[in-house]
Design a protein that fits this description.
By secondary structure, the chain is mainly beta. It is 3% helix and 50% strand. A hairpin with a 4-residue loop joins strand 1 (2-4) and strand 2 (9-15).
Length: 297
């Protein structure tokens, strides 16, 4: 545990002790106006989060889940749910929906506090007998306005390998609300389903929750890796920024369904319909960086 009341920074090493989350280990981090829960047992993904006392992350009705069930029964959401390295969506045959990375416990986990920043780091292995041997080296910097995630994917074997990545960044109520706006300076936008294609003209508009509303997913190509969400009534804006050269596809997941009310801003290495893995040569390392920040407007 680290606590410094003067700097308004705290880190608590916790183990959850109820329901399906029983036994799940995490860090509860506060840095000024921003608070979040980082899941040590789930690839250092980020669950609950708040900014200036307002909840900003979508956490599904499942809540936090220690042991994986079917995807609908175990998808947690959270401010960051990392998809990969073996699959995203249902693109890889025989692989769990959105891949197995999120369900892998991080190793050699630690944190430090310096210069007004909390840094959490650890390694997430993706290995198997006669399989690729990849390690995700993750570092999360928690500041007073959000998080900066740096991932280095290392191929530890002497043979070439491949992987895929999707950063499922999820916003939810009360930040997500009717009248909110999604701002993406896109070059192209395309709906994933026939319904989404019909609704492309209103992809940037957030409506009120509606019972049994079908989700809409959109592909974007962008020049600059940036997607924003604005809630002018609350006076809070969120931004997801990243390197669009390394993550050339931006997906927008808009679920306006009552009780499944969510907005996902999701940089990825590939589309679903033209899915392809990213090659990585023997002993090489690839780096990705995604920032999720909040501000008052």
């Amino acid at each position: 545990m680290y606590f410094n009341g003067y700097e308004d920074i705290s880190v608590f090493d916790i183990v959850l002790d109820s329901g399906r989350a029983r036994g799940l280990s995490a860090y509860a981090v506060r840095n000024g106006a921003f608070e979040c829960v980082i899941l040590k047992d789930h690839a250092l993904d980020i669950a609950h989060a708040s900014f200036c006392g307002t909840g900003v992350a979508f956490v599904s009705r499942n809540g936090l889940v220690k042991t994986r069930d079917t995807f609908p029964k175990s998808f947690e959401g959270g401010l960051l749910y990392t998809c990969g390295l073996d699959g995203i969506s249902n693109c890889s045959e025989g692989v769990f929906t959105h891949g197995s990375l999120h369900w892998t416990a991080a190793e050699r986990v630690s944190y430090k506090v310096e210069n007004g920043c909390v840094t959490v780091s650890g390694d997430v292995p993706s290995t198997g007998l006669f399989c690729d041997s990849l390690v995700l080296h993750r570092e999360i910097k928690v500041t007073s306005d959000g998080v900066s995630v740096t991932d280095r994917i290392e191929n530890t074997r002497g043979v070439d390998a491949e992987y895929c990545m999707l950063y499922h960044c999820n916003l939810g109520a009360p930040l997500l609300a009717e009248g909110g706006e999604v701002k993406i300076d896109y070059l192209t936008r395309e709906g994933l389903t026939p319904l989404a294609k019909e609704n492309e003209y209103k992809a940037g508009l957030i409506t009120s929750p509606t019972p049994a509303e079908e989700e809409n997913v959109y592909y974007h190509t962008v020049k600059e890796g940036r997607a924003e969400y604005l809630n002018k009534k609350l006076g809070i804006a969120a931004a997801v920024t990243y390197d669009a050269q390394r993550l050339p596809v931006l997906l927008e997941w808009k679920s306006m369904a009552e009780d499944d009310y969510a907005l996902g801003l999701e940089p990825a290495t590939t589309r679903f319909d033209t899915f392809k893995m990213t090659p990585i040569v023997a002993r090489a390392t690839h780096e990705y960086k995604v920032n999720i920040n909040f501000k008052k407007i």
